């Protein structure tokens, strides 16, 4: 990643510009997911940690100081610390199932989509049916991941995977900024 792009993203973060999240996800999302996965060794939990890390990054964006660390180093530390905290929390719950935090990003409903950006629901037909069903349940019917899992009789891990892949497919069709509008909505609430 070029220094200019990194500086641009850092500036957008300081300005609380929503485009920063799209750029962060596009350029750092896979790497930060890898950081989380390396700590917890669980795909679903690593996805949750990545989302939680992006929320923390947004909320702490004014605390980033480029004189103290590169942007990636700062992002890495937030993600790694979030993963370690999740792991410690899971270890203190003896023989109990880890309860994932359900985020509002999965229960936005149709009011969470800005019609002037795009009519995603109308264009869902362009992606595979199994992803359409999950995206429709989560974003347009307002279900949580757990509710969608129960209603559709699909394992929770599969719901999460299909959500991630479905968003990736929408991103291919519309570009990163529109496909990530759901995540940005969460961060700006």
UniProtKB/TrEMBL annotation:
PROSITE patterns: SIGMA70_ECF (PS01063). Residues 24-91, 133-172 form the RNA polymerase sigma-70 region domain. One of its GO terms (biological process) is DNA-templated transcription initiation. The keyword Ligase does not apply. InterPro entries: RNA_pol_sigma-70-like, RNA_pol_sigma-70_dom, RNA_pol_sigma70_ECF_CS, RNA_pol_sigma70_r2, RNA_pol_sigma70_r4, RNA_pol_sigma_r2, RNA_pol_sigma_r3/r4-like, WH-like_DNA-bd_sf. Keywords: DNA-binding, Sigma factor, Transcription, Transcription regulation. One of its GO terms (molecular function) is DNA binding. Pfam families: Sigma70_r2 (PF04542), Sigma70_r4 (PF04545). Gene3D superfamilies: 1.10.1740.10, Winged helix-like DNA-binding domain superfamily/Winged helix DNA-binding domain. SUPFAM superfamilies: Sigma2 domain of RNA polymerase sigma factors, Sigma3 and sigma4 domains of RNA polymerase sigma factors. Belongs to the sigma-70 factor family. ECF subfamily. This is RNA polymerase sigma factor.
